[in-house]
Specification:
Length: about 300
């Protein structure tokens, strides 16, 4: 599934997901369409139910969330190959909607596809996770819950970051702990620096690296000082978003191609284009200048929207 299609899928989740317990309101979908017919189809439905329960009914924080505060998110686990008995390679799409104050609009806080998913799952087996024993006893079995725990912490961290300055630090540290103690071997990838430039390691590393501390300011400026003010003062909201983009540009000039920069802009091109399409000529030109440097993939779209 493409990330664009995924945004539509997440919109359906927002309308159909019942309110669950704890911090997350997650909808999990497991697709086994590419699996051989020898695989018991009950694996997919059972795994889907088990992951939904794991995310929604586990307590990830010490905070109390009201039903209206639960973080709406969606996961699509697409099984791509059977590598051994009960052992799978897959991709995982993670999407998170962040409500904008005073509106019915939900901003794409996270819209990311993880291509490095390897795990073992035996039908009807429980999903176990312990922050102090992330590796478990079987690396491939443990890798499934390590992956979902990592993204649960990231989701909560980015959500908190968007509401309070450096609010996500505690959960980014928990995600970093998962990285540092992640299962190893048996073809497991995505937890190490040498596994590529866009992976779980680099996202967590960037969030721990003091060189990139302005990212925290940018998330807060973009959401709390920016989009959340859109109904009360649209001009002020755009100015705050421009400040966030300028912060991101400062980091990008010193350290191009960071994982966190690319992660930030996934799924935001329409949002940014629509926001600045109504701006005054000076702000529109400034936004276009920044966005063509920061979000290269969508240069043509920005040029069309902000001409």
């Amino acid at each position: 599934m493409s990330l664009k299609t995924g945004i539509i899928w997440l919109a359906l989740v927002l309308l159909s997901t019942p309110i669950m317990a704890q911090e997350l309101q997650a909808r999990v979908s497991v697709s086994g369409a590419r699996m051989p017919t020898t695989v018991d189809r009950r694996v997919f439905t059972n795994l889907q139910a088990a992951l939904t329960d794991f995310l929604n009914n586990r307590r990830w924080t010490s905070d109390t969330y009201k039903p209206s505060e639960k973080i709406v998110c969606a996961f699509l686990l697409n099984l791509t190959s059977l590598t051994d008995i009960d052992t799978y390679s897959a991709s995982l799409v993670i999407q998170v909607a962040r409500p904008i104050y005073g509106t019915a609009y939900n901003s794409p806080l996270i819209n990311f596809q993880d291509q490095d998913v390897q795990f073992k799952y035996v039908l009807f087996s429980p999903l176990l996770f312990d922050d102090n024993r992330v590796q478990g006893t079987d690396p491939l079995v443990a890798n499934l819950t390590a992956l979902f725990a990592y993204y649960a912490y990231m989701i909560i961290g980015f959500d908190d970051e968007s509401f309070s300055l450096k609010g996500g630090d505690t959960y980014f540290q928990k995600a970093w702990n998962v990285v540092n103690n992640a299962p190893e071997g048996n073809g497991i990838k995505g937890w190490a620096a040498f596994d590529g430039n866009i992976n779980r390691y680099w996202l967590a590393e960037n969030l721990q690296n003091s060189r990139y501390s302005l990212y925290s300011d940018a998330y807060y400026q973009y959401y709390r000082q920016g989009l959340d003010q859109i109904m009360s003062d649209e001009e002020k909201a755009r100015t705050s978003v421009l400040t966030a983009l300028a912060d991101l540009d400062n980091i990008n000039q010193e350290s191009p191609n960071t994982m966190i920069r690319q992660f930030f802009f996934e799924g935001k091109s329409n949002e940014l284009g629509n926001l600045f399409a109504k701006a005054n000529p000076q702000d529109k030109a400034r936004a276009l200048d920044l966005l063509t440097r920061l979000d290269i993939t969508n240069i043509n779209k920005y040029k069309q929207q902000l001409k």
